[in-house]
Specification:
heterodimer, A: mainly beta, B: alpha/beta, Metallo-beta-lactamase, Chain A, seven-stranded mixed sheet, elongated
């Protein structure tokens, strides 16, 4: 599954780790994250993320 | 107004804000400074500026060294207007100067000032040569805005750290060894607790990056410059960023007819009998930013409010909103309060404390005025749990 980077603060969402503190189980693809989820570091919304080119 | 030499060819040319007492909600009882630094080399470089209304003070200091129109490079390490606010007037004096900022910084400066200045994006790890000296840029996003960066001059071993390691102190002194050092550290702790605390994971990354640098001087954007006690401030940041706590409780409360205050005293006596450090902080007398400073190294937070109109007191709500934005989590919290009928305050406070990432201890509620037996119960019950 693809990783996504927060364009504001640089946080990287890794589906393997999820964001348990934000209610996102490990193994959740970025597309499956609810729209009201926010970046755990800087608080911006999901649409501020971009796909990480590997 | 005179410049202050930091090292040969490197000068402090900032401004002292003696009267500042309220920095959007942070009580700055000692005022502050906005530190700008001028480096005289083949390319004349200014690192950061000052709040707009101190522009003349900054340019007067610069003018004692060079004509400000000769500035070739401005490094804008942080968009916030206490550091970038003098750019519009400065750019009228030196319109050809190149402005180096992080990619987020360039975006932020454009969104503040709407000017087509000659911007240069500073990428993490980039080195800018000024002639004999150079600046290496390190991006430090979310310490404490997305645009933040710091600059290291290896030839002079100076880390220009912007808001990191800052302290709100207005002084005629510029260095850590010429000002009471306990006060410097007290204000550095207050700054960390009120500005930097939610971003401790990012601070840990910054400290790791800085550990590879040979730093002899830390030149922050507020307060004193560290040249004698660099290790002390780095050590303190390591502790704070590591979320280190000690056996200490902060009891924060407000009260209407002293019932909640009596409960606060019972909690305090439990901590006292268990030789647990504690601090009583009534919201009537203490500023929320001073409370956050005390919370910085505390293991337990007790928050008390009676129920007023089926709610908590607005003072308590204000503190909890502030806490929620800053709290590092990983600590314990307990809510308490008296009530007449509805009794909603304790559960409302508990909701906020949980949202602040704190783990709840069972709290205490008392109807109307607590009697001796109830106060004794509160003390004994808490003693068993600490």
């Amino acid at each position: 599954m693809k990783k996504y980077r927060c364009t504001i603060c640089g946080y990287i969402y890794d589906p393997a780790q999820g964001d348990p503190d934000g209610g996102i189980e490990p193994g959740t693809a970025f597309d499956a994250i609810p729209d009201d989820w926010v970046c755990p570091v800087c608080g911006v919304s999901k649409d501020m993320f971009e796909e990480v080119e590997e | 107004m005179e410049p202050v030499k930091i090292k040969e060819g490197v000068y402090w040319v900032g401004a002292v804000d003696w009267g500042l007492r309220n920095f959007h909600g942070y009580s700055t009882s000692r005022g502050s400074t906005y530190n700008a630094y001028l480096i005289i080399d083949e390319k004349i470089t200014l690192i950061d500026t000052v709040k707009e209304r101190f522009f003349d003070e900054m340019t007067e200091r610069i003018s004692k060294i060079i004509d400000p129109s000769k500035i070739d490079i401005i490094v804008s390490q942080h968009v916030e207007m206490d550091h970038s606010g003098s750019l519009p007037r400065l750019m009228e004096l030196c319109p050809g100067a190149e402005i180096y900022a992080s990619p987020n910084g360039v975006r932020g400066l454009k969104a503040h000032y709407r000017k087509a200045w000659p911007f240069k994006e500073a990428k993490g790890g980039d080195t800018l040569s000024m002639g004999e000296r150079s600046l290496r840029f390190l991006l430090t996003p979310m310490v404490h805005w997305p645009d933040n960066m710091v600059s290291f001059c290896p030839e002079e071993k100076i880390l220009f750290s912007n808001d990191s390691f800052g302290q709100h102190i207005a002084s005629s002194e510029r260095f850590d060894d010429s000002y009471p050092f306990d006060t410097v550290m007290e204000e550095a702790a207050k700054y960390y607790a009120n500005i930097v605390l939610p971003y401790s994971p990012q601070v840990r990354k910054e400290l790791e990056a800085a550990s590879g640098l040979d730093v002899a001087v830390i030149a922050p954007s507020h307060g004193l410059v560290f040249r004698s006690k660099v290790k002390n401030i780095i050590g303190a940041y390591q502790e704070w960023a590591g979320n280190k706590t000690k056996k200490k409780a902060v009891i924060v409360y407000d009260t209407m007819w002293k019932s909640t205050e009596k409960m606060a005293v019972s909690l305090a006596s439990a901590f006292e009998s268990k030789a647990y450090g504690f601090k009583m902080m009534s919201l009537g007398e203490n500023h929320i930013s001073d409370i956050m400073t005390e919370f910085l190294d505390a293991e337990i937070l007790c928050v008390g409010s009676p129920t007023l109109n089926n709610n908590m007191l607005p003072t308590t709500a204000s503190f909890l909103t502030y806490l929620k934005g800053l709290s590092p989590g990983g600590r314990k919290a307990l809510a308490f309060g008296s009530y007449g009928w509805g009794g909603q305050s304790v559960s409302l406070m508990e909701k906020e404390l949980e949202a602040a990432g704190l783990s709840l201890m069972e709290g205490f509620k008392v109807n109307y005025v607590p009697d001796e037996a109830q106060l004794k119960n509160i003390k004994e019950d808490l003693e068993k749990r600490i």
